[in-house]
Amino acid sequence: QSALTQPASVSGSPGQSITISCTGTSSDVGAYNYVSWYQQHPGKAPKLIIYEVTNRPSGVSNRFSGSKSGNTASLTISGLQAEDEADYYCCSFTASTTYVFGTGTKVTVL
Amino acid sequence: EVQLVESGGGLVQPGTSLRLSCAASGYTFDDYAMHWVRQLPGKGLEWVSGISWNGDYISYGDSVKGRFTMSRDNAKNSLYLQMNSLRADDTALYYCVKDRHTSVSHIMYVWGQGTTVTVSS
After folding, report:
1. Would you give the distance in Å from CA B28 to the centre of its chain?
2. Using CA atoms in the order B56, B64, B113, A32, what is the torsion angle rounded to 10 degrees?
3. For the segment B44-84, what is each residue's pLDDT rounded down to a tens digit?
4. Closest approach of chain B CAs to the CA of A60, in angstroms?
């Protein structure tokens, strides 16, 4: 199972919106609404920020939103803040009943 | 507060075995599925294995299938990963992760701080 494809890096200025893509196949992202997103700050464990494509766990800022179209899921961060600078990973359920993560995206706040 | 504390990592030689443990506290352990996820040095995340609340369902990633065995002891609030035939590419930080559901899902809700496994001669 190959990793889902994410851009290596995305940057934006404070207050702007950025979008991170996560491209899979018709056997994972395209087949199920079981996509989650994780935020990881340096030296820290990942944190769940989106599940089931669009849902936010309680306590997660509503500046984070998710969507999906075909084989590509997306995470949008609106009103970018310095604290959003981190690595972001998507994850999808697969037709093999396993889970696959994305390659990861480093978000830089300019 | 939910706490997941991994242990058992270390430096081992290729071809040998290691058993990781995860002690859970702060919630009803047997109400939730669990996962092991690893992170290669300086790189991304890889899902290793998932187990349902009662251990009846276990799934493995392709790279560890046949070599790793995941298990849980609900009486001890503990999760385990028996790793055999270790290879250099198993070198990683191994996270214990609590699911949001009783069955294994994509919702990896709470993560431990990880334990490091290094496989080298």
Report:
1. 18
2. -70
3. 999 999 999 999 999 999 999 999 999 999 999 999 999 99
4. 12
